[in-house]
Specification:
It is a single chain. The chain is mostly beta strands. It contains no helices and 11 strands. The chain starts with a strand and ends with a strand.
């Protein structure tokens, strides 16, 4: 069973930056059919960025212009770069993967593999 391995996160003051990474335990490409989600205390989980393909990334309105998704290490590491962080960005951040065709032309609707989560805390 492939697992998603996350790293990064931490505590910063408002206006600061943090970086999260996500990689598949098998070393498989994570260049498409992925997503970043977050869950704040007492709130439902929400999508932060949906990655259909490297050229088709949809960001939540609340993070547009501040968060950026990128790929590293030959498309096997998915990065969420977060800048100008706000206290409302505090939460547990997850990367997730969807099933896809061998050439990533089509992604499933449901996310079937989830990372363990990375804590992001932004103080005011």
């Amino acid at each position: 069973q492939v697992q998603l391995v996350q790293s990064g996160g931490g505590t910063v003051q408002a206006g600061g930056s943090l970086r999260l990474t996500c990689a598949a335990s098998s070393g498989a490409s994570v260049r498409a059919c992925m997503g970043w989600f977050r869950q704040a205390p007492g709130k439902e989980r929400e999508a932060v960025a949906i990655i259909n393909t490297p050229d088709d990334i949809n960001y939540a309105d609340s993070v547009k212009g501040r968060f950026t998704v990128s790929l590293e290490a030959g498309n096997i590491v998915l990065v969420l770069q977060m800048t100008n962080l706000e206290p409302d960005d505090t939460g547990l951040y997850y990367c997730a993967a969807r099933r896809h065709t061998s050439n990533f032309n089509s992604c499933a609707t449901q996310y079937n593999i989830w990372g363990p989560g990375s804590q992001v805390t932004v103080s005011s």
